[in-house]
Amino acid sequence: MDLHARRADSFGAQAEAYAEHRPDYPVAAIRWALEPLGDRTERLDVLDLAAGTGKLTAGLVAEGHCVTAVEPNEQMLSELVRRVHGVRALPGHAEHIPVPDQTVDAVFVGTAFHWFDQEKALPEIARVLRPGGVLAAMWAEPATDVEWVRELEQVSASSVESQRHDPVSIMAHPLFAKEERATFPHSHRRDSPEAAIAWINTHSRLIVIDDEERAAINEKMLAFLHQRPETSNGPFDVPLVAEVFRTVRVSE
Ligand SMILES: C[S@@+](CC[C@H](N)C(=O)[O-])C[C@H]1O[C@@H](n2cnc3c(N)ncnc32)[C@H](O)[C@@H]1O
């Protein structure tokens, strides 16, 4: 298995910690993503693809939508089923979505689009969307314009690089209109430096490295967080930015 595939499949080993420590998504980002559907008042049929433990799924359910969650990793999907109720949860991949043609109004992808084989996933997403339906890919990432957050990112760097997405060509495909992008401020409450470290340890760049390297990085992070005034005095908020790309399925 190559490194990309190993990382894409790595999250299950940390499923419980993932559910416990990863951030959710701002409701403003979800609403912005759905704007192209207009002022429809009925419940929308929404697919959360690569749903993980349900961080985004829970936000979609709270907005009153009829949500189907699809996730390939068994441990991640079990956490989702345990924690998010009122959702249809199905095992499956973005490249082969277990949902019939033209049955959803919107497909959401939270912090996972970069793991897909996009040449296969985009036509699959287009297949399940109704004409005019929305595809929204979003990421909730540390706000690196804040000095201590940027430094924490540097301190937590491992021998495996962060898996960045290409913000421009990400959804370029003849079945989709040109994408639009927006960002939303967000934050992630942490009770202690240890809780911040637990969150950072749920990233694949730290899951797939060996124990010795991870222990050394964790030690550096702990020293850093105990020494910074922003993080060494009780609970703190980590500034995040939610970055959203939305596009609309065009008719053939
Ligand atoms: C970083 S997690 C994001 C989970 C969730 N959407 C969230 O926002 O917390 C990435 C997820 O993508 C899933 N994944 C990886 N490759 C996938 C693929 N080809 N199709 C669907 N899901 C995939 C992983 O199993 C993992 O649960």
TrEMBL record:
| UniProt-listed GO biological process terms | methylation
Gene3D superfamilies assigned to the protein according to its UniProt record, in alphabetical order: Vaccinia Virus protein VP39
Q: What is this protein called?
A: Methyltransferase domain-containing protein
What domain of life is recorded for the organism? Bacteria
Which ranges carry the Methyltransferase type domain?
47-136
Endoplasmic reticulum: is it a keyword of this entry?
A: no
Matches recorded under SUPFAM superfamilies: S-adenosyl-L-methionine-dependent methyltransferases
Asked if the keyword Transferase belongs to this entry, the reply reads: yes
Q: Which GO terms describe its molecular function?
A: S-adenosylmethionine-dependent methyltransferase activity
Source organism of this protein record: Lentzea flaviverrucosa
Keywords assigned: Methyltransferase, Transferase
